[in-house]
Design brief:
- The chain is 44% helix and 0% strand.
- The chain has 78 residues and is mostly helical.
- The chain is globular.
Length: 78
């Protein structure tokens, strides 16, 4: 978003960031974020009972890699 001249508010809300990115690049609408915020935000705090299964952890890790890859591909240095 910074690359495209947008101000970025500090947040761990990945779904909100994807939504903001899709406002200027519709490719970000192709990503299904599932419930990634539960693991990106709630999982940071020890008082939550959020414990993903190995399969869930692997799936969300792959989703995070997909998002990172897509964002990186959209930055073109000239």
């Amino acid at each position: 978003m910074i690359y495209n001249g947008f101000d970025v508010q500090k947040t761990h809300d990945i779904i909100a960031l994807l939504t903001q990115c899709s406002n200027f690049d519709t490719i970000f609408e192709t990503i299904d974020p599932l419930d990634i915020n539960s693991y990106a935000v709630q999982g940071r705090y020890p008082d939550t009972n959020l414990m993903p299964t190995k399969e869930e952890a692997e799936g969300y890790y792959q989703l995070a890699l997909q998002i990172k890859s897509l964002a990186t591909e959209r930055i073109i240095f000239s």
